[in-house]
């Protein structure tokens, strides 16, 4: 990314602050307010909803194209989302690309909300209802 200068008045003196994209907690947000596209690919993982991955400030974002890696188009999500599935993910040293009922005594489908359940122990049920993302990518929410 290209850097940019911000001139700021502070106690009568001007300071030029150069901020390069590598110093920010993520890429610059696109100016256009395009809608989120689900699912989308970011760093070879499939996301079915907003995520904080790739950001150090904890803000939720989404891609505005199906492949962030290619298009580099994204926006902040308007509100924090519930945890969403990340594909592929690792569970018991096995790679999963869809929801699974493995390990669930109740037989319900679930997925990891990070790329490695074995390390992070973060997950959610897949049969989420009442969410636009779930409707848009229903095929990802069923085993």
Automatic annotation (TrEMBL):
SUPFAM superfamilies: Kringle-like. Pfam families: fn2. Transmembrane segments: none annotated. It comes from the Eukaryota. One of its GO terms (biological process) is sperm capacitation. Residues 31-79, 80-128 form the Fibronectin type-II domain. InterPro entries: FN_type2_dom, FN_type2_sf, Kringle-like, SP_Capacitation_Regulator. Keywords: Disulfide bond, Repeat, Secreted. Disulfide bonds join 36-62, 50-77, 85-111, 99-126. One of its GO terms (cellular component) is extracellular region. Its main location: secreted. It is found in: Secreted. One of its GO terms (molecular function) is heparin binding. Belongs to the seminal plasma protein family. This is Fibronectin type-II domain-containing protein. The lineage of its organism: Eukaryota, Metazoa, Chordata, Craniata, Vertebrata.
